[in-house]
Amino acid sequence: MEKACNPSRAERLANEDFACLEKYIKEFSVLYVYTHQASSKDPLTKNLRKSMTKNVKSSAHRSLLNPENRGKFGRNDGKFVDDNLLVFNFVKDDLSKNASTRIPARLFEPLASYIKSIGQISCAEIRGTCWLVGGMLVITNYHVYMLINTEREKQQNPNLPITVSFDYLRSGQTEHVVTVEVDEEQDPQLGDSRLDYKFLRLKECEGIQDRVPLGSIVQNRQLQEGLVIIVGHPKGNEMQEETCVVVSSYSWREKLKQRHDKCIEKYIHNPDPSLHMTNDRLLRSGEKYKDCVPYETSLFTGASGSPVFDLNGNIVAMHTQGYTLNTESGQCSLMEFGVHFNAIWEDMKSKERYHDVEQLFPNYNLEDMDIDD
């Protein structure tokens, strides 16, 4: 045992220390037990132990998910029985949560072109994100538009201009930013509060005429897992990009409830049981977010309206609101969502805006496109 832990170690361990170390080793990956050289200068800290334990869990989970090992679990025919399926889903979710956020380098070039069509929409103190769909039309969240109306009422000025700034890429940048005013007299009257989308028309501007209309890369695809890329203006800052892990569709409600309860316990000393998420509230959340894709992201206020890209470089959703909880320390975001474009498309058709669908989203019904196509 001594040699396995540290071949160069000369002193012997006391019995109680030996038993304690043996307990920890049972939690660790074999790889870490043989490679980590614990010493007084590099002690076996709590964080290190937790990291090791996490590694061995992930290693075991990967082993379970390995197709070559599938037949070793459950029945002899290799099929998962109910209990094993629960374990399988838990393991799959655990790996997704810690999944690598690497993206293919081939996305860099098209994304560099697409970000020129993404702008920051603003009116007085209100900030959000929008993007060119086609012609001079941009799309953003309906709640951003309503916040603008509320801001106008607050300042008692219904004529406060709504502007969109493109090429805002550096903090405090004032030069080389193209700012265009929204043409409210030409409002397309197209949007929906439930699906949280709103189209607006910009005034004519030569500075944006050659930019890629992103409606052409919108796809009718509902993501259930994997990675997405969000590009927007969080907190009204310069444009930022974040690669996010999609929360598995089978587990997001359970995860949402767990995070809700943990947040309550963390921020409220004497939690009121009525604040905890009940099954009824979960059902209502399920209805509210049924047309959305849930994911892990740090892009909150200001990123509303951001396009959500898949790893083929297509837009599959628009970043909307998350499930938030007001605490003593401020607002806590438990999970963020993007509304799928297939839901927006169906809503537009229900409003008899078929021509707009065909004109703004010309490739919407095609099979999933790859940026190399």
Automatic annotation (TrEMBL):
SUPFAM superfamilies: Trypsin-like serine proteases. This is Uncharacterized protein. It comes from Paramuricea clavata.
